[in-house]
Amino acid sequence: MEAVLVDIRQAIESNVLPVGEKLPAEAQLAKQYGVSRPVLREALRGLQALGLIVSHTGKGSYVASNRPVENPIFGSYSLRDLAEVRRHVEIPICGYAALRRTEDDLDMLESLIERMEEETDSIAWVALDTLFHITIAQAAANPAFQKIIEEIRDALGRQSRMLNQIGGRREKSNAEHRRILEAVTAADHELAEQAMAEHLAHVESAWASIMNPKPILRPPGKS
Questions:
Q1: Strand, coil or helix: what is 221?
Q2: What distance in Å separates the CA atoms of residue 18 and residue 104, rounded to the nearest whole number?
Q3: For residues 55 and 33, what is the distance between their CA atoms, to the nearest angstrom?
């Protein structure tokens, strides 16, 4: 899916597919890339989220812009909205969770991480990912914190799904979640905040790479 998305994106950004151009039909694109139609649709959804194409039911997909939008929207909140609130809320939440968590909280978090490490379905993984962050908020034993995370729950899920589809973040996220749990289990307030801060920094870095990817270097003589 990522290879298809990158190829179409490069065609759009290099003006091979100019703004206003209609993309070939899904069946044709799927055959061209040698992928299934569900895989092709995931790539198109990623391009749409980046603001590069727009899809009209029954009419197909059209190139909307040759540059990704600066601030993608995930439901009710933008990428910038989520980044700002997560930095200022989830980091202290994790510190409080390290001090206040119960054995039931730890058991729940461990179960979620184990399921995430074994999960192969991207949609199911995203649901577990969101639940992990909600459970950290529950472990902080402050209903105001929990309410904030619940409020942005849908946007977090949308963001996570796209990030893992395009940025291939799932395995790295699993490892980062594991480090968060280790710090919370150790009741280490500072280490827990640091682990969450590093996780969020990696998320923001991955988004920066998606929005402004490095050009692919081709061997001499290759076009």
A1: coil
A2: 55
A3: 19
Q: What's this model's pTM, rounded to 2 decimal places?
A: 0.81
pLDDT, residue 147, reads 96
Dihedral (CA of 185, 116, 212, 46) sign: negative
CA distance 85 to 153: 12
The answer to whether the CB of 4 falls within 8 A of the CB of 33 is yes
Q: Which amino acid is at 16?
A: V
| Residue range 180-212, pLDDT digits in tens | 999 999 999 999 999 999 999 999 998 888 887
Render pLDDT for 134-167 as a digit per residue (tens, 0 to 9).
999 999 999 999 999 999 999 999 888 888 777 6
> Domains in the chain, start-ordered, CATH in brackets?
2-63 (1.10.10.10), 73-211 (1.20.120.530)
Q: Tokens 């998606």, residue?
A: 210
* Distance (Å, whole) CA 205 – CA 196: 14
| CA distances, 86 to each of 1, 82, 152, 156, 177 (Å) | 28, 6, 10, 10, 15
- What is the maximum alpha-carbon separation in the chain? 62
Q: What contacts 145, CB < 8 A, 6 or more positions away?
A: 89, 93, 96, 137
